[in-house]
């Protein structure tokens, strides 16, 4: 399913309005689209999605139990300044210096669970943005 794009919107206006938004939004090159809750039809994730994310998070929790690493869930945004874009990966691991109040940059690890309703964006937008990040490492 293709997302409903809104915009154009400046990066500054996106950041200013994102905190007050009723639902999470991702931002790509001047346009934004809503995640769970924009349509008020599908809010949340499937049981399978939740199980996969929780299992990986539990494995990563012990690896990231160090002050120099930050483990983040989908509520914490990934900022890719070069694009410019903001995404909400299901899980991310950042070096602690790369963590701001509302987002992180230059992650070491990203997890995106693909579901039918998000497959287009996950495979056609996020995959290319994520795999271009030089900071990603194998854990």
From TrEMBL:
Domain of life per record: Bacteria
Residues of the Putative restriction endonuclease domain: 12-132
CDD domains referenced in this protein's UniProt entry, alphabetically: DUF820-like
Gene3D superfamilies per UniProt: tt1808, chain A (3.90.1570.10)
SUPFAM superfamilies xrefs: Restriction endonuclease-like
UniProt cross-references to InterPro entries, sorted A to Z: Nuclease_put_TT1808, Restrct_endonuc-II-like, Uma2
Name the UniProt record assigns to this protein: Putative restriction endonuclease domain-containing protein
Biological source species: Deinococcus aerius
Lineage of producing organism: Bacteria, Thermotogati, Deinococcota, Deinococci, Deinococcales
């Amino acid at each position: 399913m293709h997302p409903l794009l809104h915009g154009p919107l400046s990066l500054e206006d996106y950041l200013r309005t994102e905190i007050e938004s009723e639902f999470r939004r991702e931002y790509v090159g001047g346009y934004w689209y809503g995640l769970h809750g924009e349509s008020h039809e599908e809010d949340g994730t499937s049981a399978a999605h939740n199980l996969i994310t929780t299992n990986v998070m539990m494995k990563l929790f012990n690896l990231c139990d160090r002050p120099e690493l930050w483990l983040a869930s989908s509520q914490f945004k990934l900022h890719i300044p070069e694009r410019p874009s903001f995404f909400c990966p299901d899980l991310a691991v950042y070096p602690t210096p790369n963590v701001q109040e509302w987002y992180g940059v230059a992650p070491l690890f990203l997890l995106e669970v693909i579901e039918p309703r998000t497959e287009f964006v996950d495979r056609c937008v996020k995959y290319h943005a994520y795999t271009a990040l030089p900071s990603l490492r194998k854990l």
